[in-house]
Specification:
Layout (H helix, E strand, L loop, with lengths): L5 H22 L12 H4 L1 H10 L2 H8 L3 H15 L12 H14 L3 H8 L3 H23 L5 H15 L4 E11 L18 E8 L5 E9 L4 H7 L1 H8 L8 E2 L6 E2 L2 E3 L10 E2 L12 H27 L11 H9 L1
Parallel strand pairs: 1-6, 6-7
Antiparallel strand pairs: 1-2, 2-3, 4-5
Helix pairs in contact: 5-6, 5-8, 6-8, 7-8, 8-13
Length: 335
């Protein structure tokens, strides 16, 4: 067995220390701001295209998928939540540009890397912008535009289903939609769904005008719609009867009071307040009244599928695998 002298041990310690310092230098950021991003004020997508969009309402709508007045109404509502103070080192990104970046992320479905090149912003900066803007919209606008309905609001929804879709006593159509994600590390099969992809689930209730009444986001992709509904805040509130649901009322042409109901597909359980179609079977043929009921229910229920279709058509991000941690995908989906 060989032994090192004190001198040799000292030399080894010095070499190891120098190697550790060299490795730590390599891990440091090479740039405070990349040279490409320093040209944001003159070459960034938002700065170069803004003037042209402001002069053309049609082009503005094509670019942002919303009219100009709506864009600035949203901006006014969340401005104070996403505005930062300028420092002596650099000028902050304006709330207007942050909202523009976020909308383009949703509309195009582009990666943060692609948006980084076009807007002349750092990739990590764009990631933070998207998350901050989504959280601001959820906190400021969701309580206004998706509040818990009052009894009068439920009655208005029921009138809509009766007049437009010929389904009286219906106060909402319910369904779930898978939002595809990249499988998180060490998640096993939690997010693996029956479509052989990884996802979280967006459970939604929609009114007769394709507007979202309530949403629940973040359930594992492996879970069924019925199971997600039963464990959701909305499902539990329905069981406890704490949602201001109107009192029972007779169906047209009858005197027998019937409860108000939601309509769903075969994945949901049958309840006094939740209707589903008669199951299709190879061994039993449906009677004419049962087929007529299924047709009427399907006609009323399709509004929720149409609402999902509009959402996915408007924002291309939902047609791709979102490369974010599920907790951030939850904020993006609620947005």
């Amino acid at each position: 067995m060989s032994w090192f002298t004190i001198r040799e041990l000292a030399i080894i310690a010095i070499v190891l220390d120098e190697e550790e310092k060299e490795n730590s230098k390599k891990k440091r950021k090479r740039y405070w701001v990349h040279n490409m991003n320093k040209a944001r004020s003159t070459e960034g997508e938002f700065r170069t295209i803004k003037k042209h969009l402001m002069d053309d309402e049609e082009k503005f709508y094509i670019y942002f998928h919303m009219p100009k007045f709506l864009f600035y109404n949203i901006l006014q509502s969340i401005d104070e939540c996403i505005r930062k103070k300028n420092t002596t080192f650099r000028e902050t990104i304006s709330p207007e540009e942050k909202l523009a970046v976020t909308l383009r992320y949703f509309i195009t479905g582009s990666t943060f890397t692609n948006l980084s090149s076009s807007f002349r912003l750092g990739e990590s900066t764009i990631r933070l912008i998207v998350i901050d803007v989504c959280n601001a919209i959820i906190n400021k606008l969701m309580p206004i535009h998706i509040p818990q309905p009052t009894t009068a609001a439920w009655q208005g929804i029921e009138e809509g289903f009766k007049n437009k879709w010929n389904f009286p006593n219906c106060i909402g159509a319910i369904d779930g939609k898978h939002v595809n994600i990249i499988a998180p590390p060490n998640s096993g099969s939690l997010f693996f769904n029956y479509k052989k992809t990884f996802s979280i689930v967006l459970l939604a209730i929609v009114d007769p005008e394709y507007r979202f009444i309530a949403v629940d986001v973040g359930a594992y992709g492996k879970n069924s719609d019925g199971g997600i509904y039963s464990s959701s805040t909305f499902g539990k509130a329905l069981e406890r009867n704490t949602l201001n649901i109107p009192c029972d009322k007779p169906l047209p042409g009858t005197n027998h009071a019937m409860p108000h109901v939601f309509v769903g597909d075969e994945a949901f359980p049958l309840k006094t307040y939740l209707l589903r179609p008669y199951p299709r079977s190879n061994t039993r043929r449906l009677s004419d009244p049962e087929r007529q009921y299924n047709y009427r229910l399907s006609r009323a229920r399709r509004v929720v599928e149409n609402a999902f279709g509009i959402l996915y058509q408007k924002f291309a991000i939902y047609n791709k695998n979102i490369k974010l941690h599920p907790k951030f995908v939850k904020s993006i989906t609620k947005y």
